[in-house]
Amino acid sequence: MTTNADLEAAGRRRVRVALTGVALRWSVFLAAVGLWQLVTTTLTPEDYAPYFPPPSTIARTLYETWFSGPVSHAFLTPNAIDHLLPSLGRLLGGWALAAAIGIPVGVALGRSRHALDYVQPLIHFGRSIPATTLIPVFIVLFKFSTAMRVSVIVFGVVWPILLNAIDGARRVEPAHLDIARVFRMSRPVRLWLIVVPAAAPRIFAGLRISLSLSIILMVTSELVGATDGVGFFLSNAKKGFELPEMWSAIVLLGIVGYLLNTALLAVERRVLGWQFNAEEVR
Amino acid sequence: MRTLRHGFVTGALALATLSAVACGADGPASTSGPERTDLKVGVLPTWDAAAVYLAVDKGYFKAEGLTVTPVVLASSEEAVSRNLSGAVDIAHDGYVSPIMAASKGLPLRIIVDSARAKRDMYVIVAPKTSAIHEPEDLAGTTIGMLNSKGLPALLTRAALRSAGVDTAGVRFVDVSYPTMGAALQNGSVDASFATDPFLTRFKQTLGVRVVLDTIGGPTDDFPIGCYHTTKRFAEQNPRTVAAFQRAMARAQRLAVRDRAEVTRILPTYISGLTPQTADTVAIGDFSPAKDKRLAQRVADFMTEQHVLDGHFDVSGMTD
């Protein structure tokens, strides 16, 4: 009986600690927003006050511009359907494509000393080129199409995925491979049971870096020759001096980034659960 | 046309003299020098900014006790935001952005009317291999332009309408001039808005042909350039503003009189323009005097095209 009560108490304690943690984390966020509100309402010079609407105005505009739609459209406004959805499509499509290229190539290169030596200069050359400088080239190749915008994203974000996958694949414990050999595992099995799990934490690190990069490149790619997208909306709002709308798009990008990162972390926890536990034990 | 313009200039000169006399009678306040002597003036590198450079070059600002440093700006929004932030005291700009900004509550004052457009200045071009020959062929096409929400789009839409083209199916997309050449060649855009020096360059390198002149009919003599400052600056420095206006009026009169002076000064601030091509650059009319009807005309035009919600009275910006 006592053990049961103890367990319950421990459980409650854990919940309390978790809740306090969440409260603490968000209290810093709320304090920052409060400070923002205070500064924009009191300290901003009158001349350019419209450039710095208070967060309360931004929040209202954010709601009205993007999320005040009907339930049947998941609360999305026509504006959100026209601009947010195409942007999310390009963002996730480009990122997934980069992952589909970067992870297999990276793992393969990481397991082959010689191949890596040959292509390493090429990789470092490629990743040093800002993807945005290649936009004119992609325009020549793909015109003002979705393919143009997605290829800008892919080119920009494939490098962190590739480099992290290479690094991860090289970190396999030699002892584990020896054991695999003793058990006469075939190459595919070895790859799946030993190499990929060992590389996974680095692969996820690469995916996370590239996710936030994808958002930046999505916006940039939507500034040229576009007719939809959050980047297009943003630059239009800026040109029309619709500054609360401009800020609503900026905050929207922040929210999208936060949500995608949270989702990816959740996936990572689930996939790499064993690793987190292992670390806690250590 | 020539005699008409001369009449205009003479009238304007008479007006300017009158107002100068009136200012002189104002009393001791206007006889002391400007409150601020060092001015940063932002300019968009278009032909009508020649007046600022001529006023610097000819010492017109010096004669008014002003030291003016021109700063080249990249876009109209930048002109507005840099002016409001105080990075430039006065900014050369189109009318559309400052009016749009003022309609959203940004405190700007138009202090000098710079220029009006002339035919063959703002045109729509298509590649020589394209099937677009007449304005009607532009129906349903994609047209590239620097600012699909600014003056180019307004002029193009008006010109298409007066040519009887349905504008609903025409798409305007933002393309910068360096990218425009490639976009025209590979068909990303079917046609492009162009003005000098890019128009001349497109003709030379791509062999484009002009399919529509956006100036004409409802857009004849369209006001395209002004100088604005902030409400605060105008209120705190009235003598500085007056001194700037006088020097600019002199420079604009010189520009009207002497095209050779304009040609000489253009390559000093428009990058990529050689002295040889400067002579062929299509320039419009420099405004001889301040005229608040110009800004109102642009505002009404913007209302007509639903860029502004309802009537916008610019007197708060021009008085």
What do you see in this structure?
The complex is a heterodimer of chains A (282) and B (319). By secondary structure, chain A is mostly helical. Chain A folds into two domains: 2-43; 71-281, MetI-like fold (Orthogonal Bundle). Helix content of chain A is 81%, strand content 0%. Chain A contains eleven helices and no strands. Chain A has helices at residues 2-43, 55-67, 78-110, 113-128, 135-142, 146-170, 174-182, 187-221, 230-239, 243-271, 273-281. In chain A, helix 2 (55-67) packs across helix 10 (243-271), helix 3 runs antiparallel to helix 8 (187-221) and helix 8 (187-221) packs antiparallel against helix 10. Chain A is globular and about 75 Å long. Helix content of chain B is 44%, strand content 18%. With 319 residues, chain B is α/β, with parallel strands linked by helices. In chain B, helix 7 (151-162) links the parallel strand 6 (142-145) and strand 7 (171-174). The longest helix of chain B has 23 residues, at 2-24. Chain B has a six-stranded mixed beta sheet with strand order 2-1-3-10-4-11, with helices on both faces. In chain B, strands 7-6-8-5-9 form a five-stranded mixed beta sheet, sandwiched between helices. The radius of gyration of chain B is 20 Å and the shape is globular. At the A-B interface, helix 5 and helix 9 of A face helix 5, helix 6, strand 7 and helix 8 of B.
